[in-house]
Amino acid sequence: MKQLSCSQIAEMVNGELIGHTDSLISAVASLEDAKATELSFLGNDKYAPQVKESSAGIVFIPENYEIEDKKCYIKCKNASAAFSAIIDFFAPEPIQFEAGVHPSAVIADCVELGENVHIGPNAVIGKSTKIGDNTVVGACTVIGEEAIIGNDCLFHPNVSIRERCEIGHRCIIHSGTAIGSDGFGFIPGKDGHKKIPQVGIVVLEDDVEIGSCVTIDRARFGKTRIGIGTKIDNLVQVAHNVEIGSHCFVVSQSGIAGSTKLGNFVIMAAQAGIAGHLEVGNGVTMMGRAGVTKDIPDGQTIFGFPAVPKKEFIKQNLKLKKIDKLEKLLKELKSEINSLK
Predict the structure, then answer these.
(1) Which residues form the catalytic set?
(2) Are residues 135 and 115 in contact, defined by beta-carbon separation less than 8 angstroms?
(3) What is the value of pTM for the model shown?
(4) 62 closest CA partner among 16, 7, 12, 8
(5) Which of 200, 206, 220, 322 fits 168 for a cystine, CB–CB 3.0-4.6 Å?
(6) Contact 270/252 with Cβ under 8 angstroms?
(7) What's the pLDDT tens digit per position in 120-156?
(8) How far is Cα 222 from Cα 240, in angstroms, rounded to an integer?
(9) Do the Cβ atoms of 37 and 25 come closer than 8 Å?
(10) Residue in 115, 117, 87, 122 with CA at minimum distance from that of residue 100
């Protein structure tokens, strides 16, 4: 069992130890569930009341937290980051994937496998695909013909990467995700809807991580592109010919319509949506359920539907709150006018 003293933990995270205890810490837990031999943290002021009630042996707290009891604490510049560092110490060893191809996997002709590649049970690798060194292809994952996969990638079970798509180095793709599905393109007509060929590809640049059950559509022509270091949460839809910049966050249930471009360091909060053929600047933050219907310049934080900057959003909501008072005033004025008649 791994154990650390409180002073050792404080030294590891460069924090200030408040109070002294001889307890040895052997695990991490939430404030609510932690025991005397476990470490917890305060990462959000909302949970501050739980600190006093927690049974944790030691708690990471922000530097501005006011201590009112004699428990053991470690003050940190960033309590959440410090907690993450200690989690790494106590976490079980990561699963190791042995290099080699499982007997049940299907490998087509002219496939190029790098060194130390792991191909799991029932995986299917299409013709003329290239897979880089140390990449892991999980069970039942399918990689289509002529795809190019970089080094040190991890594809969990049941991932689908369609033909000719390109994945950079150190990318992680979680289960149930489809990279390179056909874009939603049809020409309506009296005799039905005629499918528009989708002949482009998807490119994931280096260090991209994609959650579970995400769909990233191939371009109608050219490339749908996800920039370096971007992280996409579960249940996100990225349509054809979308371009997402570097180091963006796209959070669960968000959707981006076709041919829209996002700059670098953009944040799309949960259930935000962007219409097609728009441009979103660098450093833009779209709050939860924001509906973007026009171009957004650099650095803005936007709210609501249709999405507007924060000041305008607050102004609109203040006006809405006044409607009831205005209706009441209108009734009173009408009553006075009728009495004068």
Answers:
(1) 240
(2) no
(3) 0.84
(4) 16
(5) 206
(6) yes
(7) 999 999 999 999 999 999 999 999 999 999 999 999 9
(8) 10
(9) yes
(10) 117
